[in-house]
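Researcher: Here's the sequence for the chain we discussed earlier.
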Amino acid sequence: MSNLELKGEILEMIAAIDDRESLTSLKKIIGEFIGNHLKDSDYWEELNEQEKTELEKAITESEDENNHVDHDEVMKKYKRWLGK
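Model: Thanks. This is the structure I predict for it:
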């Protein structure tokens, strides 16, 4: 079973729960699980080689000031999507 299939089964199980108390408890459990997982996980090891290469390239590009865009320019360009 793939990770995607497993996630789908978990989501189906959660979707079948209707009472608020159970959903609230489950949310708390999942939140704690994810919080602990994030503290203990090294996501670098979970990336494939292409993802690692792309991330390293993005980091290198971000260090070059010629690639930086002024905040005001970004806000002007995306003003219509921001509703301002």
